Amino acid sequence: MSAALIEAGNLTVRYGSKAAVDGVSFQVPKGRVVGLLGHNGAGKTSLMKALVGLSSFDGSLSVLGMNPLRDREKLLEQLSYIPDVAILPRWARVDQLITLMSGMHPRFSADRARTLLKRTSVGPRDKIKTLSKGMVVQLHLALMAAIDAKVMILDEPTLGLDILSRKSFYEMLIDEWCDGERSVLISTHQVEEIETLLSDVIMLNEGKLVLSISLEDMDTRFVGLSHDPAQAEQIASAHPLLRYRQAGQSAALFDGAPPEHITALGQRFRPSLVDLFVALTRAPERSRQQA
Amino acid sequence: MQTWTSQAPIYQQLADRLADRLLDGEPDEGEAMPSVRTLASDYVLNPLTVSRALQTLVDEGVLETRRGVGMYVQPGARLRLRLAEREKFLKEEWPAIVEKLRRLGIKAHELNWEI
């Protein structure tokens, strides 16, 4: 396998004395769709900002073989980034934006942007301020996907969109961006609906990495066991990551298959990404209460 | 969006769904399968998951890969799928049905076979 597109080693991002990202190591190879998950304040945006050279960091970080801080301008030519606070100029028309991008970005293809927009209901003469929120996000993705880049970084791109807009966003992402070579790192709170889209997941909890795994490995490593409430005590003795109730049944989630006499007490199931997310991360206020 | 159960890996569930459609002749034997990207976008799935599902169907002799062109439905695929489905039904589903009929005390002659 060729070198990873993104490689972070012991990456730390500080704001004053607080570490927003705390000693995080991971790799993103080519052709992957990586979900970056974490509660609000877990460090997702800080991590993404470091990747695109918008915040200083300690540790090692290489994006497309470059140091984001030192080679920021060159890096931004080869990387597409939609920040969580992304806005497009409201006064502009779509075709004006395309012209603007052509002048600004050496790897931007106006033709490709126009082709991509044909998938959407956004017309070239539309003014940005007349577009719905969903259409603006579609437009933004079309502009970013028209850049000949290897990595796309999307910070909560579907925030505030209704389900149909989210679906067309994901469809366009798969159809027009994922080609087996390019990778995308995408942060979101819509864990449930993004699960099937991902090839890998990175989970942050209070700045620390709690999981970095491919979905394929996740299926084999984590085991769910639904069981009768009467068996709860025996199940608990095998130290599951999490115990909860679903659909009137008790369920437990294990890291690694539990011993056979425990498995025999219930029905194995494939834990969802949401189950794992709940098991491995906690809302900051809850951790504080427990501390 | 599509719904998937927690009982089996998603690639397996997709392979089952594609097999169901193949049984209905979509697409017909000898015809091309939709591309990985088309399926990925239709089902909102990661392309790797789709490739794995298609590979499962190749391994079962239902699809064949034509290098550089794509996947095609093998001649005899529907017969093979039907036989596999029959075996699965008789082995996995039928015993559960028999068990339920027993529990409800329903005899064979009480069942309507003309539906």
TrEMBL record, chain B:
* Domain of life where this protein originates: Bacteria
Protein keywords: DNA-binding, Transcription, Transcription regulation
Question: Which CDD domains does the entry link to?
Answer: WHTH_GntR
Question: Is this entry keyworded Transcription regulation?
Answer: yes
Gene3D superfamilies assigned: 6.10.250.1220, Winged helix-like DNA-binding domain superfamily/Winged helix DNA-binding domain
Q: Which PROSITE patterns match?
A: HTH_GNTR (PS50949)
For this protein, the record's SUPFAM superfamilies field holds: Winged helix' DNA-binding domain
The HTH gntR-type domain sits at 8-76
**Gene Ontology MF terms in the entry:** DNA binding; DNA-binding transcription factor activity
> InterPro entries, alphabetically?
Tscrpt_reg_HTH_GntR, WH-like_DNA-bd_sf, WH_DNA-bd_sf
User: Protein name, please?
Assistant: GntR family transcriptional regulator
> Which species does this protein come from?
Roseateles toxinivorans
